[in-house]
Design brief:
Blueprint (H helix, E strand, L loop, with lengths): L8 H26 L12 H14 L30 E4 L4 E3 H8 L20 E4 L2 H6 L2 H18 L6 H6 L1 H13 L7 H19 L7 H4 L4 H26 L1
Antiparallel strand pairs: 1-2, 1-3
Length: 255
């Protein structure tokens, strides 16, 4: 008895297993894209370095009202910097979706050897790029000099490390962050991109959209049924990876 009419059972099983794998991956990707980052906790291997950064920052801010009241816990709220345990200020976001104050991250980065690619103090993932996540409060009332300094350091970091070779698995892991960045740039006006890049993305999106709705597929739905969505999922995945690669290049060019 044939599982799918007109196909051998071995081919049908391959299609079924491939569809399940692709579906699980896409669901996981969508959940990571939509859900906020988990509450960060400093990795034990980074705890000593982070404590040194906290002490140095506390020594510079003893005259402030909160300088002596910072909690000693390693756990911070989602809107707090995991290093200084205070509200995020001119925040930067890493490829592993953790956010830090721009000044805190720079102080942490400076404790690594020159040209050494740092690891995230929260999860120890290798850091490949930084994104600016300034709030409206930062832009309206923040110190322009501090903002300029953070932007300059982010540019230096991306210019130094974003162009390094990236494995396929790392490209897939970076998709949630880079696709959210793409959304903000395209539809929320967070940062400027060239008209040529915007046009290229629109053309690619239209191509993928019409391919998905077109009856002309590698695995036609009329023959293999629901498993005909497999090639559509693969085309979408390739599209997402390509878009992420474009914006990774945009980070380097913007630096």
């Amino acid at each position: 008895m044939e599982i799918i009419s007109g196909l051998e059972n071995s081919i049908s099983l391959v299609l079924i297993l491939s569809s399940i794998i692709v579906a699980v991956f896409l669901v996981s990707l969508i959940r990571r894209f939509m859900s906020p980052s988990e509450i960060p906790q400093i990795h034990p291997e980074s705890e000593q370095t982070v404590n040194e950064v906290r002490q140095s920052r506390a020594a510079r801010s003893r005259c402030t009202s909160n300088g002596d009241s910072a909690p000693s816990s390693n756990i911070a709220e989602v809107d707090d910097c995991p290093i200084c345990l205070e509200d995020l200020k001119f925040a930067v976001e890493t490829n592993c979706r953790h956010r830090f104050c721009g000044e805190c991250f720079y102080a942490y980065w400076q404790r690594f050897p020159p040209l050494s690619q740092p690891n995230c103090p929260v999860c120890r993932s290798q850091l490949r790029f930084l994104l600016k996540r300034f709030t409206p409060t930062d832009l309206d009332t923040g110190d322009p000099a501090e903002r300029s300094e953070v932007e300059s350091r982010v540019a230096i970091f991306n210019r130094r490390f974003s162009g390094n070779p990236v494995s396929l698995m790392d490209q897939i892991r970076d998709l949630p962050v880079l696709l959210r960045y793409c959304w903000r740039v395209m539809f929320e006006g967070e940062a400027g991109i060239s008209c040529l890049l915007r046009l290229r993305l629109i053309v690619l999106f239209l191509f993928v959209f019409f391919y998905v709705i077109s009856p002309l597929d590698i695995f036609p739905e009329s023959i293999v049924g629901v498993f005909g969505l497999l090639d559509d999922c693969l085309v979408c995945l390739v599209f997402f990876i390509y878009v992420a690669a474009l914006f990774r290049g945009h980070l380097i060019a913007d630096a």
